[in-house]
Design brief:
Length: 366
Amino acid sequence: MNFPTRFLPRVPRPAGLPPRENPASGPATTRAAEGRGALLARIALFIETHDLAVTAGNLATICGGLSGSHRELAQAFAAREISGEPIDQRWLDTLGRFDPEGQSRIAGLEALMDKLEYSLMRFAQTARSAQSETSDHRGALGAQIEAMAEVALAPDAAGELAQVLDLSRAMLARIEQVEAAMARSQEETERLRENLAKARMEADVDHLTGLPNRRAFERRLVSASLEARAKGESLSVAFCDVDRFKTINDRHGHEAGDRVLCAVAATLNEHAGNACFVARHGGEEFVLLFYGMDKQAACVRLDAIRRAQAARQLINRDTGQPFGRVTFSAGVAEVTEDADSRSALGRADAALYRAKEAGRNRVVVG
């Protein structure tokens, strides 16, 4: 695919440096190395030009788009450049939402964790069963040893009986050692299961706002869609984006910007109600699922939350300077309108862009 020259800037080799050569490898290897260097330079310049964060997700998306290795991403990048629309973090996050490879990786990780948890559970069950049987055998063997000891004390007891008694006592001691080791293994297994459960829970939480994160939202979208279709109920989704958040960061600093995100998260969570799932999707963007609501009802609910947020007067506690009105724009779409649940994300995202273009601080239905 051919990209506009401005979109894929050529980075010249610094003056004074000799051309890259590798006689031992030949011209083909040299060209490949130069190609890799040029791609890395384009990625770096792209990130710098559009003021994007250097994260694994961003690098994967940008590399896929600029190199042309991911056809859908390359097309999306070219169309974005041609349209002249802004290339920002939210747009990159939007591309990530439609990355089937990313979703399969998440699903694969979930399956692996499920298998590990199941294996730990089965091991714990086996250890408990074995420990119980060992304890029973130990008790029976102990009683038998006591009976044999009484016989061994008799004057006419044979030397062979004394040897059997010594061997039995050694066996009992060994069984006690095995039982103690199994108890320790069971305790360790339980700790591993608890740590795994804790890790899974922490992996679903956005540590800045305390809300569920994008990973948790992706799973909830799938389960909620299946449940809504099975029950014949409505399900709607909304994307919310804090207005002019970059200006807040530039003027007050990133730490103050983080506190603003926490304040918006608190407003969303407080006013959403039990029939709504609220998550931080990334950056200054939040996502909501409205159970049992069509897009019009969800729009009404979200617009009430928008008004509540716009009415708040936030102040930078470090400087005493007011942030001014902190508002958000949003787009709403109905998940159950068509068979493809993920298409609703595209409609909600497009509606969010229209809300931004119409002046921000509003909710638009897609």
